[in-house]
Design goal:
The protein has a two-stranded antiparallel sheet with strand order 1-2. It is mainly alpha-helical. The chain starts with a helix and ends with a strand. InterPro entries: Rer1 (IPR004932).
């Protein structure tokens, strides 16, 4: 009886060690890919093009395409949105949004609700899942696809209009292009002076 319990315990232990090892290998591969943003996004773009070509050439899987498009739109909106929403960040004293309005006030960097790496990872995973779904006929539900396209673009316009209004109202830009970058310069005294590029 004890041998059976020990045998089943070692099987569970071996399986959990295997799962842990696979998880560690997976995380190690993700860590190696983290600094290479352009190749990662090129790969994600390649997957999206493969998915689109498969759907166009086979003339099917429009529901999968619509669901994937809506999911990618939600990810993109989370990528553009600040982690702490200025509309919800109220100061107890004046019940207004607490944002810097003058040059001498504290600088607050833009922190995304969905970081770039997680955005890429979710796009890549969902596109691979969508691509796999196109190999099964049970997901090829017949629909009138022009209505899905029209509904998707209507949703895209409404969502992006709301997001752009939010960006204009609270004066933030979710991209780093055109923003000053600072680097240190050493003087003869050995002190580091920070100046804009």
């Amino acid at each position: 009886m004890e041998d059976e319990l020990l045998g089943s315990g070692s099987k569970k232990n071996g399986f959990s060690q295997f799962c842990t090892r696979v998880s560690q290998i997976h995380q190690s591969m993700l860590d190696k890919w983290t600094p290479y943003a352009l190749p990662r996004w090129c790969f994600a773009g390649f997957l999206i093009i493969c998915f689109a070509l498969r759907v166009i050439l086979l003339q099917g899987w429009y529901i999968i395409t619509y669901a994937l498009g809506i999911y990618h739109l939600n990810l993109f909106i989370a990528f553009l949105t600040p982690k702490i929403d200025p509309a919800m960040d109220f100061d107890a004293e004046d019940n207004g949004p607490e944002l810097p309005t003058r040059a001498n006030e504290e600088f607050r960097p833009f922190i995304r609700r969905l970081p770039e790496f997680k955005f890429w990872y979710s796009v890549t995973k969902s596109t691979i899942i969508g691509l796999i779904c196109t190999f099964f006929d049970c997901f090829n539900i017949p629909v009138f696809w022009p209505i899905l396209v029209l509904y998707f673009f209507t949703l895209l316009c409404i969502t992006m209009k709301r997001q752009i209004r939010h960006m204009i109202k609270y004066r933030y830009l979710p991209f780093t292009h055109g923003k000053p970058k600072y680097q240190g310069h050493e003087e003869a005294t050995g002190k580091v002076i920070v100046s804009p590029k």
